[in-house]
Amino acid sequence: MQWRAMEPADMDAVSTLSDAVHGQYTEPRAVYAERRALYPAGCFVLADGADIAGYLIAHPWRHEAPPPLGGMIEAIPADADCFYLHDLALLRVARGTGAGGTATRMVLELAKQAGLGDVFLLAVGGADVFWASRGFAAVADAPLAARLTAAYGPDVLYMHRPAR
C-alpha cells in the first residue's frame, strides 16, 4: 500500500470508503471534492493495487472554528493559523500497516511547509485513542466543546499537536 495524491477520479471511492468507515459521521461526496479542489496538496489516497484502502484530507484553517460536519468551506482562509486534519479514513485491511503513522507524519510535514506550527482535528467514535498515540491532546475550551457536542454528540474531542 502506498499513499498517493488524490485525483478527481478518486471521489467515488473516497465517498464509498467514508460511508463504510465513518457511518453517521460520513459527509457528502461534494465535501471531499471541494477540499481536494481547494487544497490538493493536502489530499491523498492509500492505493492498494487498483483499490483505495484509505484517504487523508488536510488543509490550512483557523483553530478556533473547525469546519462543520458535512459543510462546504468555499475557500481556504487567508488568515489561516493552523493546519486542520479534516479526515483520515482507513479500511480494516489498512489498519495496523503503519499507514496511519505515515499519514500523521505527512500532515505534520505539510503544516511545516505551509508555515503553520499547529495541527488540529476532531476525533469522534473513539478515534481520540489513536490520535493520542500520535501525540495529539484534547483541547480544553468549554465553549467550543459545547458547540462541537451539539453538532457531533458527546464523544467528540477537539485535539491539537504542534507540527514540530
UniProtKB/TrEMBL annotation:
Gene3D superfamilies, alphabetized: 3.40.630.30
N-acetyltransferase domain sequence ranges: 1-164
GO-annotated molecular function: acyltransferase activity, transferring groups other than amino-acyl groups
Entry-linked SUPFAM superfamilies: Acyl-CoA N-acyltransferases (Nat) (SSF55729)
Pfam families: Acetyltransf_1
InterPro entries cross-referenced by the UniProt entry: Acyl_CoA_acyltransferase, GNAT_dom
Domain of life: Bacteria
Species whose genome carries this gene: Croceibacterium xixiisoli
UniProt keyword list: Transferase
Designated name of the protein: GNAT family N-acetyltransferase
